[in-house]
Specification:
The chain is mainly α. The chain has helices at residues 7-30, 50-70, 102-109, 120-124; strands at 89-90, 99-100. Helix content is 45%, strand content 3%. The chain is elongated. It starts with 6 loop residues before the first helix and ends in a 5-residue tail after the last helix. Keywords: Signal. This is Secreted protein.
């Protein structure tokens, strides 16, 4: 059997040489000394303004949460394929008012989001925006 040579081995050798020469250039650059007129870096952290940090976080968080609160949870809302449009009601025999699922599924089948749900909507109202 004869062995044929391809350019892949030569290309790998050239790539290795380029990578190794780049590593030496980086090491040479790391050995540079700063000029004497530059101040030394500070070794202490600056004081943090907690009010600005909290203010920035809450304002940014509001813009991130607002789309989630208004996101349409039922993609088939308002169509004939909407399975949440069907409701179930149970009327107890002891004179209590009927209990139905439409109170929970109604806001979703009308195209609402999480903010329109009875309990979760009130909880999401406490979030910014």
């Amino acid at each position: 059997m004869s062995r044929t040579r391809t350019g892949a081995g030569a290309l790998a050798a050239i790539g290795t040489a380029v990578l190794l020469s780049g590593a030496n250039a980086g090491a040479a650059q790391a050995e540079q000394v700063l000029p004497a007129d530059l101040p030394l870096p500070a070794t202490q952290l600056q004081n943090t303004d907690a009010a600005q940090a909290v203010g920035g976080t809450t304002s940014g968080l509001g813009y991130a949460i607002a789309p989630v609160k208004e996101l349409r949870l039922d993609p088939w809302a308002g169509s004939s394929a909407d399975f949440l449009n069907n409701g179930v009601a149970v009327a107890p025999d002891n004179g209590m008012p009927p209990v139905a699922t439409s109170a929970v599924t109604g806001p979703l089948s009308n195209g609402g989001g999480a903010k329109d749900l009875p309990v979760a909507g009130a909880l999401l109202g406490a979030l910014p925006l």
